[in-house]
Amino acid sequence: MAQKVRIIGVPMDLGQSRRGVDMGPSALRGAGLQASIKKLGLQVEDIGNLSVKQPEEMPVGEKRAKYLQEIAETCGDVAAAAEKSLIEGFLPLVLGGDHSIAAGVAAGVANHFRKEKKQIGYLWLDAHGDMNTPESSPSGNVHGMPLAAIMGYGAPELVDLLGFKPKAEPGNIVIVGARDLDAQERKIVKKSGVHVFTMRDIDERGMREVMADALKYAMDDTAGIAVSLDMDFVDPADAPGVGTPVRGGVTYREAHLAMESRRNQSHPRRTQPHRPPRRRTRPLRPRPENPVNSFKSSVVS
Ligand SMILES: [Mn+2]
């Protein structure tokens, strides 16, 4: 993993109807984010917040995907900032804001590795699937759509960010902590082939085992993974300040364990450009680890 972290704030709340998540970047900074990262022995720099439009300044637009144009524009800026960070050797740590920004993170990170003909996995820690499309969404709030966009479903403004799709293959995408999917969304999730670990899986098997499986899927034949942690992954008893709280979430400690599992798992080395999986005729030899090829990108929303 990169030893240098770049903090990028994205104070956007256009993706949902409840106001306030735009205060996320300040709240996280105010809680001592920089000092905590330094304590891990990593270098850190903060480039401040990206400029985001305010809902008062413009019409809602299409009811099925509110503020879509402005959100897609911001996601383009997020993608550029995330990709630039990776090029310059930094781990981009993007602070939201509502979860629609993850479409931008995915675009930037995937584009960086795409230039080396490599793919990425995506770890989605969330109470929700965020796999609605404008057609399936009951609310028209875009924060419920980014993961669908990453896989190539939904509004072209998000799906086609940086001119390619999908940003990751469903087999390398894992949702952990799900407990609140919409009826239509459930069908999309099933059809897509993403891996889902619900709260029941975590209750029954424990976070350690669930994360071991989740990382296996996300890292299978990928150059690295992006991690998206929606704060509503955590139970509202521990994290009440979120836009869409859902009871029955993970504890404060389980959330830490999930992220610690990621940090302790180094990525297997890839020396060849990505090819479709083949049937193996010989037993696999263990591959040496190369920390340079192992990265993590995070978004907190
Ligand atoms: Mn969520």
Describe the structure.
This protein is α/β, with parallel strands linked by helices and about 300 residues long. It has a single domain (about 5-270, about 285-300), classed as Arginase, Chain A (3-Layer(aba) Sandwich), CATH 3.40.800. About 35% of the residues lie in helices and about 15% in strands. The chain has an eight-stranded parallel beta sheet, with helices on both faces. The two termini are about 20 Å apart. The relative contact order is 0.16. The structure holds manganese (II) ion. Manganese (II) ion (MN) binds near residues 126, 127, 230, 232 and 244. The site of manganese (II) ion has 7 residues, from loops.
Supply database-style keywords:
301 residues, alpha/beta, Arginase, Chain A, eight-stranded parallel β-sheet, 33% helix, globular, binds manganese (II) ion
Concise description?
The chain is of the alpha/beta class and 301 residues long. The chain has 10 helices and 8 strands. Manganese (II) ion binds next to loops.
